Amino acid sequence: MPTSQEASTFLNDVLSAEVIPEGKMAYFRGRLANRFHALVLSEFARLEAAGKINGAKLARRISREPAQISRWLGSAGNWTFDTLSDLLLGMGYEPDLSVIDLRAEGKHIQDAEGLAHISWADLNAANDALGTYHRAPQVEQPKPSITVQAA
To answer: Where are the beta strands (DSSP E) in 74-145?
Structure first.
């Protein structure tokens, strides 16, 4: 079993390394794609439940086939910035973005399975080599760093 000095921690590789490992960059790329997908999907579901939009109407508004809308809403896949912008604009929104300082104390990150929120300190202590994460007790949900504003 590796000692704490030998163990590679998740954020240590991101924050301290001269070159960030490709796997860490891939994790955060996927995390961002999933967050954007969840944002668009939740807004679509909210508008659809209110009877304000459906897949066919969204498709017409952005000059796409309904099947394409279904594929996009079904998975984050290989979305581009254009995809994100088109989908939100078709619903009457655009994103409002902010950044989070990974070094800041008290910041939280949702684990890979989306089951619990853990502090950066706990995540930093997780053993990345095993791909496991120590789950902290559930804490109050942090304010979203991505919001949607009506266009």
So the answer is: 93-97, 108-110, 117-119
Residue 99 sits at the vertex; the CA angle it makes with 94 and 103, to the nearest 5 degrees, is 165
Other beta carbons within 10 Å of 37: 20
When computed from its CA atoms, the radius of gyration of the chain, rounded to whole angstroms, is 18
Q: Which residues pair with 93 in a beta bridge?
A: 150
Amino acid at the residue 27? Y
- Identify the DSSP state of 133: -
Residue ranges per domain, the chain? 10-150
Distance CA 72, CA 47 (A): 16
pTM here is 0.64
In tens, the pLDDT along 42-61 reads: 999 999 999 999 999 999 99
